[in-house]
Amino acid sequence: MTTISAVRGVLPPHRYPQAQLTELFGRLCLPDPSARAVASRFHTSARVASRHLALPIERYVELDGFTAANDAFLSVAVDLGCEAALAALTDAGLTPSDVDLVMSTTVTGIAVPSLDARIASRIGLRPDVKRLPIFGLGCVAGAAGIARLHDFLRGWPTSVVMLVSVELCSLTLQREDSSAANIVASGLFGDGAAAVVAVGDRHPSAGVGPRVVDSVSHLYENSERAMGWDIGGTGLTVVLGAEIPDLVRAHLAKDVERLLSPHGLGTGDVARWICHPGGPKVIEAIQSVLDLDEDDLAMTWNSLRRIGNVSSASVLHVFADTLTDRPSSIGDWGVVMAMGPGFCAELVLLRW
Fold first, then answer.
1. pLDDT digits (tens, 9 = 90+) for 110-135
2. Which is the most buried residue in 114, 121, 160, 335, by most CB within 10 A?
3. Contacting residues for 280 by C-beta, under 8 A, at least 6 apart
4. Backbone angle region of 223, left / alpha / beta, with phi > 0 → left and psi within -120 to 50 → alpha
5. b vs e for 198-221, b when ≥16 Cβ sit within 10 Å of the residue's Cβ?
């Protein structure tokens, strides 16, 4: 089985309270005072207290198009990705030269060469390192990335693999979009990065950390417009449907059963739920269909409050917080869970 040797989340230094970010969004995107009042109500209900931005807040006035925003993405994303990768490798007791495969994921900027190539040259990964960049999975990519690392290590059990997620959601801000989706997203999403280091079961450090036992994927039919981007001349315009909580209620319980039942487990056997903070309505839907309470998802609620939804990096921040603040006992079971564009779910079964 795959051992998760380290999970580390990092954040840009520019942190602002929700009210200040709401004011910025209104000033840049909503000339109508009544629309600003609507945005304020949405942002208050998001249960987000503060978020981190890729740039100092005053710089956002200068970002007058997709080119400027993506240039900023390239600069900040590589810095944050390197910071997360090096921190995770240090926590795992490994060095960049130990890494055999690096996977990168983002959905908030375009990079060719990809982020993993830029990070590799910066931190000193080997010239023969295997690379796998992923674009388009969005919020689900943190959980999906762990599952795909596990798939690789089943075939290469002596290897060291690393997942690096960087999401700079603030740089996708659309100034001419007063839609409900843009208003909701502007109060929910933040910026950050995370990295996971994992090893196969024939590596010398295997067994030191939670182990991946199994994973489940589910691509829901006829749900392509529930979440994603419309890509045009001004960059990335958010697609965020009101049906997402309903999709969770319709499908997630069966997805969890598919993950747990082959191992003779039920939801009551799971000690740690490591869940992506998709927003209050989504988290409440998860609690409802799995018969969980707010304490079961305390790490998820806390991450939402402190840093917002950081897309693919969010579930990894929750994972890192869980390892630090809610340590598990040997034999405990855990589930890593996220949903995203597709619309889809990815679930990973862990055991300590």
1. 999 999 999 999 999 999 999 999 99
2. 160
3. 45, 46, 47, 304
4. alpha
5. bbbeebeebeebbbbbbbbbbebe
Whether the bond between 210 and the residue before it is cis, its omega within 30 degrees of 0, is no
**190-215, pLDDT tens digit by residue?**
999 999 999 999 999 888 899 999 99
Other CB atoms within a 10 A radius of the CB of residue 224 amount to 14
* Token pair recorded at residue 84: 């997360």
* Per-residue tokens: 82: 């390197």
CA nearest to 170, candidates 29, 288, 303, 1: 29
Residues 29, 82, 139, 169: which is the catalytic one? 139
Is residue 29 part of the annotated active site? The answer reads no
The first and second tokens of residue 346, run together, are 């990815």
The full 3-state SS of the chain, as one line of letters, equals CEEEEEEEEECCCEEEEHHHHHHHHHHHHCCCHHHHHHHHHHHHHCCCCEEEECCCHHHHHHCCCHHHHHHHHHHHHHHHHHHHHHHHHHHHCCCHHHCCEEEEEECCCCCCCCHHHHHHHHHCCCCCCEEEEEECCHHHHHHHHHHHHHHHHHHCCCCEEEEEEEEEHHHHCCCCCCCHHHHHHHCCECEEEEEEEEECCCCCCCCCCCEEEEEEEEECCCCCCCEEEEEECCEEEEEECCCHHHHHHHHHHHHHHHHHHHHCCCHHHEEEEEECCCCHHHHHHHHHHHCCCCCCCHHHHHHHHHHCECHHHHHHHHHHHHHHHCCCCCCCEEEEEEEECCCEEEEEEEEC
